[in-house]
Amino acid sequence: MAKIKGAVVIDKERCKGCEVCVVTCPTQTLALAVEVNSKGYHFSYAAFPETCIGCANCAVVCPDGVITVYKVKVG
Amino acid sequence: MEKELRLMKGNEAIAEAAIRAGADGYFGYPITPQSEILEYLMEANPETTTGMVVLQAESEVAAINMVYGGAACGKKVMTSSSSPGISLKQEGITYIAGAELPCLIVNVVRGGPGLGTIQPAQSDYFQATKGGGHGDYHLLVLAPSSVQEMADFVELSFDLAFKYRNPVMILSDGAIGQMMEKVWLKPQKKRSEEILPWATTGKPASRERNIITSLDLDSERQEKFNLKLIAKYREMEEKEVRYEEFMTDDAEYLFVAYGTSARLCQKALQLARAEGIKAGLLRPITLFPYPKKRLNELADRVKGMLAVEMSAGQMVEDVMLSVNGKTRVSHYGRMGGMIPTPEEVVENLKTFIKG
Amino acid sequence: MAEVTFNDIIKPENLAYTKSKLMTNNVMHYCPGCGHGTAHQVLAEVLEEEDLQSRTVGITPVGCSVLMYNYIDVDFQEAAHGRAPALATAVKRLMPDKFVFTYQGDGDLAAIGTAETIHTCNRGENILMLFINNGIYGMTGGQMAPTTLDGMKSSTSPYGRNIATMGSPIKMADIVALLPGTCYVTRQSVNTAGGVRKLKRALKKAVQYQNEKRGTCFIEVVSNCPSGWKMTPVESNKWMEENMFPFYPLGDIKVPSEK
């Protein structure tokens, strides 16, 4: 059966660390980083990139449009 | 429509002249003594002929903001009201001035303060010429003294408004709005189809998006913008001062009066001359910019100036500023809707001469 | 089969989602987690997908979204507080072929601009009114809004909104739905991906109805104000679901009859 594999690219400098993407992600791929960006925000990142299915829910709810999502069919 | 001679009310003349000047839109709200403007336009229904939009708004506030929206599209738009309604419009007017939008605002003045009276007055001079709303700005203000000028000043106002990207006010009063006179109407002009480069008409690929706003949170930039506005007003003072003189060549005493007051001062002038008083009249046509320079010149030759206004004394302050102490200045006015008679003006001049 | 690497996936042909080209590169001034940004982006997506950039005129309000014109690449007019629908009325009347929308908050649309809102809807102006309802005055620092819920605390209702003295929260969408001039009235949200996608469908309908000159489209977005509500963004969204949605239920309130 074909599986979808996704990946997210997050513009960490523009991320305000609101965490809305983190709670939206159905596969718990995302988390807020321990370190901060130059504005002092704990930016979002793919803590478990292998679980991403490319659903784009994180990008769709991101108020600052910092997430770009890609996906491919594998297998 | 060809050039045409008609007998009309001042208010009707404004409405007809607006259609003929190729106005794109009128947005108004009824108030005495200017409701004929909206009524006339509704009856004329120019949307079916020239395509001019006429809309009765839910308030003066909405009407002036419709003017803002239309002006921001680069359209020739206008509104009209009378004093209490013009007070309501002040917020919109300062935004229009701050966004540098061209438009025409007609004030057919009635007495105040508050609801005051529906009878004519000239007590909105300060409001019209000194800004009216908040912030440092001026309208360009034209003061007609006949029904013919009510008509003629509509097109002139639009021309000046677009030349300077600044709101223009026709400051009339209930007497000129309601009186009937013959008036030559100009032939119909076509509405402009030009798309102005600064107007919000939808962003094509060929230009950056246009933003019409009066907001700038950067103080340095905002001050620069304020200086730009001031430079515009100085340019108006250089180029746009308009006035009319009557028997000033040998005048020893000068009436200074605009609009309805200027009409009765013409009669007062004749009465005074018949009694051997060498009186003259300067009628400012633009109240901003004010004919300061000319009054200052005349101040060297006359023994005194009497500002005649239907107010407690507003324009007289500009006369004083213009002559800067060179000659005596006084004021005679009636209020509450009372129009002074030429005879009482002459009596007052005599008292003034005695000192 | 070889393992698919991150670099294999992030190729242009695999793009699943990126922000609309009509969003500018300016960093939005909104607080973290604010629904305004999300609402802007859905709107920009719809304007882009419907190819509306060259014929759109947007009207921004006074409130947090006053600077919206910095973020979406279309022509904008900035209105005085509450007056956006009056501007939009004139724009649409004078240029009927343009796509015209207003974007207003609850203070702007439901307090100071109530008359303009009601009468613009009543005239059935062919515009889209987008209404962001977060139950508070955000920009001025969290004062009570006409839509602030019963008992809800704000800087001007520090003991909670008292209906007896401060009046009840006002349901603008339900009010304008009663007017014959409105053709489409719906209440949506942007706190979940599903909500955003529903809002997008609603916006597309509004574009269609405006093209068909059906009347005023009124879309309310029930949104959050983490700063004004003094919560984290995630908490604010949860609070909104538990408190705002029961009072301002999501869904269509009025839909036009099929042609």
List keywords for this structure.
heterotrimer; A: 75 residues; alpha+beta; Alpha-Beta Plaits; two-stranded antiparallel ribbon; 2 helices; elongated; C: 259 residues; alpha/beta; Rossmann fold; 37% helix
Helix content of chain C: 25-40%
Radius of gyration of chain C: 19 Å
Structural class of chain A: alpha+beta
The fold-level CATH name of chain C is Rossmann fold
The CATH architecture of chain A? 2-Layer Sandwich
Query: Please, what is the average pLDDT of chain A?
Result: 96
Number of separate strands of chain A = 4
Radius of gyration of chain A: 12 Å
CATH architecture of chain C: 3-Layer(aba) Sandwich
* Total domain modules of chain C: 1
Name the CATH class of chain A. Alpha Beta
Descriptive overview:
The complex is a heterotrimer of chains A (75), B (355) and C (259). With 75 residues, chain A is α+β, with helices and mostly antiparallel strands. Chain A is built from 2 helices and 4 strands; from the N terminus they run E-H-E-E-H-E. Chain A is elongated and about 40 Å long. The mean pLDDT of chain B is 98. Chain B is an alpha/beta fold and 355 residues long. In chain B, the strands form 3 sheets. Chain B has a 7-stranded mixed β-sheet with strand order 3-2-4-5-7-6-13, with helices on both faces. A 5-stranded mixed β-sheet of chain B has the order 10-12-11-14-15, with helices on both faces. In chain B, strand 2 (25-28), helix 2 (35-44) and strand 3 (53-56) form a beta-alpha-beta unit. Chain B is globular. Chain B folds into 2 domains: 4-196 and 228-238, Thiamin diphosphate (ThDP)-binding fold, Pyr/PP domains (Rossmann fold), CATH 3.40.50; 243-354, 3-Layer(aba) Sandwich (Rossmann fold). Chain C has a single domain (30-135, 166-254), classed as 3-Layer(aba) Sandwich (Rossmann fold). A 7-stranded mixed β-sheet of chain C has the order 3-2-4-5-9-8-10, sandwiched between helices. In chain C, strands 6-7 form a two-stranded antiparallel sheet. Chain C is globular and about 70 Å long. Chains in contact: A-C, B-C. The A-C interface holds A 5-7, 9, 14, 16-20, 22-24, 41, 49, 54-65, 67-72, 74-75 and C 1, 4, 6, 8-11, 14-20, 23, 27-28, 30-38, 41, 190-193, 196-197, 226, 232-234, 237. Strand 9 of chain B pairs parallel with strand 3 (75-78) of chain C, so a sheet runs across the interface.
